[in-house]
Amino acid sequence: MRFVIVTGMSGAGKSTALKMLEDVGYFCVDNLPLPLIRKFAEITYKQSIDVNNIALGVDIRCGQALSELEHVLEDLVAGGFQYEILFLDASDAVLVKRYKETRRSHPLAGEGRVDQGILEERNKLNFLKKQADYILDTSQLLTRELKSEIDKIFVKNEGFNNLFITVLSFGFKYGIPSDADLVFDVRFLPNPFYIDELKPQTGNDKEVQDYVMAFDVAHEFMDKLEDMIRFLIPNYITEGKNQLVIAIGCTGGKHRSVTLTNKLFERLSQNKEYGLKVEHRDIQKDSIRKSI
């Protein structure tokens, strides 16, 4: 039996994660009073109830009692109860945006600002994040991508490292992505934009990919980029980083950057030790501007 404690920042997707675990057969309990956790573990482990896996939601709603959770967890270990911690996180900017969209107040903000409540919550939950077996940063995750990661960990029992990589194409004329950790400029490559039959196509089309990758410099760039990324990934994981955005840009974000982004995604997809997705931020913007 797996006993999972689901916790994390308010607005990061804890409730959604609990629902997903429930959908795959976990018996889920949210916001159980902390003094009852030990008793709950005893019932689920030692008594013959028809439950295979347990997910227990714990968060800042515990109030002042949250400070007692560390002792509760120590008590579980002393009692021989095994548990795992799933920590849902997101950037401060994303959390603020989500609260504004839902028009909800942060549980610790009171009459103050949301960002102040988020800061206080981070401080209170820091000990849980340090103990977490799995950290999922939902800042850039779609619901289906979060479900895929949860299935990977708790259904398929695949290996997991606390790092999710987004490989992102963009156009410099639309601005560098504000959340990019690494930015690479591929405007040195020949531009398909000036080839009449390739201009309306994108880096998702084979003809454009063949044109861009026909130049030796494109392959050399890809080899060097892959080598550097593969060097950085284990070091980022060791450092505790759980979200990495690799941004590759060309002028309009339609041809060269899309092609190289797809190629890097293909190469990194061979490794299952981290979450991975590809995005093309500006691939349709030229078409939208022309239609306007």
TrEMBL record:
Residues given in the record as GTP binding sites: 59-62
Source superkingdom: Bacteria
Keywords recorded for this protein, A-Z: ATP-binding, GTP-binding, Nucleotide-binding
UniProt GO MF annotations: ATP binding; GTP binding
InterPro entries to which the protein is assigned, alphabetical: P-loop_NTPase (IPR027417), RapZ-like (IPR005337), RapZ-like_N (IPR053930), RapZ_C (IPR053931)
Residues annotated as domain RapZ-like N-terminal: 1-157
Binding positions for ATP per the UniProt entry: 8-15
Keyword Ligase: no
Domain RapZ C-terminal, first and last residues per copy: 165-284
PANTHER family: RNASE ADAPTER PROTEIN RAPZ
UniProt-recorded name of the protein: RNase adapter RapZ
Organism: Lachnotalea glycerini
Source species taxonomy: Bacteria, Bacillati, Bacillota, Clostridia, Lachnospirales
